[in-house]
Amino acid sequence: MAKTRVLIVDDEPNIRDLLATSLRFAGFDIQTAANGAQAVTAVTESEPDIILLDVMLPDMNGFSVTKKLRASGIQAPILFLTARDDTEDKITGLTVGGDDYLTKPFSLDEVVARIQAILRRTKTADAEPSIIDAGAIVINQDAHEVSVEGKNVELSPTEYKLLRFLVMNPDRVLTKAQILDHVWEYDFNGDMGIVESYVSYLRKKLDPISSRPLIQTKRGVGYIYKKQD
Amino acid sequence: MAKTRVLIVDDEPNIRDLLATSLRFAGFDIQTAANGAQAVTAVTESEPDIILLDVMLPDMNGFSVTKKLRASGIQAPILFLTARDDTEDKITGLTVGGDDYLTKPFSLDEVVARIQAILRRTKTADAEPSIIDAGAIVINQDAHEVSVEGKNVELSPTEYKLLRFLVMNPDRVLTKAQILDHVWEYDFNGDMGIVESYVSYLRKKLDPISSRPLIQTKRGVGYIYKKQD
DNA sequence: TAGGCCTCTCAACTAACTCTCAGCTTTCTT
DNA sequence: AAGAAAGCTGAGAGTTAGTTGAGAGGCCTA
Q1: pLDDT, tens digit, for every residue of B89-123?
Q2: Chain A partners of B108 at a C-beta cutoff of 8 Å?
Q3: Nucleotide D29 C1' to residue A199 CA (A)
Q4: Is 0.85 topped by the overall pTM?
Q5: How near does any CA of chain B get to the CA of A16, in Å?
Q6: pLDDT tens digit sequence for B128-169
Q7: Could you tell me the domains of chain A?
Q8: A143-151 — which CB contacts under 8 Å span 24+ positions?
């Protein structure tokens, strides 16, 4: 299967680069545009499979761009990016037809997860549930549910994202810096102590119902989740 | 089974796009026309299974278009779209046969439901009632009746639509934005607090007669209805 | 025109979550 | 064996998300 083509439309170069780098690494084929006009040009040159679109662009807003794109016959789903405080009025009517939105500042892992969720839903008509099955831990992404050896666990949003990141990268040590960069919002500026805290929270919830410690510490390096012992 | 072909006839590009995107995602094969003349041309090219027709078009009214379509031998049922303040006389006489009408602004979920209702009625001669059977909750769409574990519940129109949307997407978290975009009329521009209010109303009616909480909150994500626990 | 249902808004309240910090334990180094 | 570094965790402050009651206003029916 060819690489999925993603078009990133955002006027802030920082965000654009952050997304481009991160998504390229995640295996996507990336194109970027800094405003609505460029976006319209870009889609005609190479039709993307999905579009990441900032709702507030210098030349036009999300609705106008969407309209122009749709008018050019583009049917690719759109993941809208909005500022936290835009979220009441600006997004209504956006999550139609497989589209979705994400508020800035987001976490990189969340962007990838959303893209995959959208593509899954739009590609296959009747989407089978998206399940990450990694041995002892099974995550149902549609229902946002986690089970350990068959038993359900209730997790807070951050605990969920952290565990998902660990489980999606099994048998690999992830440094605290990597975890911070992927799981926390990109403008988070506390220290890595928070990762330790949340690993602790997870262990407190997971280990009592598991037959073995699930998240292991690699001292001086980071944390690892192993599919089997 | 091949995809159902829907022809959308409306002069407002916004509405056309909204409908096209939404219905395409719902699994229909979409064609569009901006006026009566285009509509007549379109139906001859590819015979639609159902037509969504705005009653007030720039070049001719609903009666004329219908007459022309019928004259070309098209028997597909028509779902008329009318403005809220259009008086009764604009509609009377139109909804003969399997036809029906819907007032603007409508909700997207409602459009899909109506289309399916019409197709059900016109396709199978002896219409068996359309029942959504999702575990504890059973919805009879023809009778607009809801039962929880066999017991009947009276719901207001909005409560009904909200519950239907949740029940038609079981075991999947639906965000407040998705719910707002599908269940509420497309021009609604209040905030998502209303979804919370209506979930609260539903719970007050459903939970007392149910053996388990039916609508669960996924904090930071949305709401979910699970077929079984 | 009054009464009743319905929709929607608002605000108080509650529960849950995020993050920081400090003191503790474990592991490594010399 | 002692000290340093790294990691763990409980407590708590501050914030945010979700729930619910009260009520304004619209619309329909009697």
Answers
A1: 566 667 777 789 999 999 999 999 999 999 988 87
A2: 96
A3: 61
A4: yes
A5: 25
A6: 679 999 999 999 999 999 999 999 999 999 999 999 999 999
A7: 5-123 (3.40.50.2300), 131-225 (1.10.10.10)
A8: A143/B171, A143/B172, A143/B173, A143/B224, A143/B226, A144/B173, A144/B218, A144/B221, A144/B224, A148/A206, A148/A209, A148/A210, A148/A214, A149/A209, A149/A210, A149/A211, A151/A209
